[in-house]
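Support request from a user on the community tier.

User writes: "When I paste my structure tokens into the form, the page sometimes reloads and wipes my input. The last time it worked, I copied everything first. Here is what I submitted, just in case something in the input itself triggers the reload:"
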């Protein structure tokens, strides 16, 4: 699903060394990129034949594939009649999703007033999915460029789930948020073993991980900026326990 002035959401399955898992990916490009993409799609759909979808149509209705639907501003849904037209629209969505996926990993940006370039946190987190409490692992990165990426891995009653959200804040907002979150940052002593639960600050000198006490403080502050990130970034991080290990 692609929303004008919004995000690209894809749902599917994938496989890794542990087996199959479900994927929910939400990517929110810069508004100008989405406007450019929709300009092309608007031209593509000008002469496409459409059927209005009945309001009482069940979500379980079998629809021949490939399929594509267009939704108007007031919520009326139209289905593309010709399979060839639907295939072209599906191809446009896949191309956009692939383009965004290739560049969604944040890179360190210019130094903030506090000297930070990027924030990274990782640890156990919990959230309600489908009305059921779910526990998993959240990893999030926020750069002073404004780019962010959150990844949440969990298990639901349907099986493993990998949910991600990537997008952009304004650079000044991101820079200010990073400085606030890292206000009490204290580096982990040299020689201390890295833990799976951690908070890290990236500067021109590289990545520094926080000690256990300031990791808990960073997690608490990070919770205050999560609403601005949304979706996969909403799981609540748990403060480190027993020295920060999972």
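"...and here is what came back when it finally went through:"
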């Amino acid at each position: 699903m692609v929303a004008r002035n919004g995000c690209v959401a894809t749902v599917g399955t994938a496989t890794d060394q542990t087996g199959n898992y479900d994927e929910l990916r939400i990517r929110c490009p810069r508004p100008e990129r989405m406007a450019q993409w929709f300009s092309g799609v608007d031209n593509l759909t000008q002469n496409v034949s459409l059927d209005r979808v009945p309001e009482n149509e069940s979500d379980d209705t079998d629809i021949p594939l490939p399929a594509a639907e267009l939704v108007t501003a007031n919520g009326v849904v139209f289905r593309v009649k010709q399979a060839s037209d639907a295939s072209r629209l599906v191809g446009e969505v896949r191309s956009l999703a692939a383009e965004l996926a290739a560049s969604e990993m944040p890179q360190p940006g210019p130094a903030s007033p506090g000297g930070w370039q990027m924030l990274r946190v990782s640890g156990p987190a919990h959230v309600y999915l489908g009305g059921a409490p779910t526990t998993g692992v959240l990893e999030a990165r926020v750069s002073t460029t404004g780019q962010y990426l959150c990844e949440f891995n969990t298990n639901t009653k349907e099986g493993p789930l990998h949910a991600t959200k990537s997008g952009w804040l304004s650079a000044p907002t991101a820079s200010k948020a990073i400085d606030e979150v890292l206000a009490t940052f204290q580096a982990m002593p040299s020689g201390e073993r890295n833990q799976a639960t951690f908070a890290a600050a990236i500067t021109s000198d590289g990545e520094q991980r926080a000690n256990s006490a300031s990791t808990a403080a960073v997690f608490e502050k990070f919770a205050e900026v999560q609403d601005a990130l949304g979706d996969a970034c909403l799981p609540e991080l748990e403060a480190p326990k027993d020295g920060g290990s999972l």
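Agent notes: The reload is a front-end session timeout and is unrelated to the input. The CA atoms of residues 127 and 134 lie 5 Å apart. The chain is about 25% helix and 35% strand. Escalated to web team.
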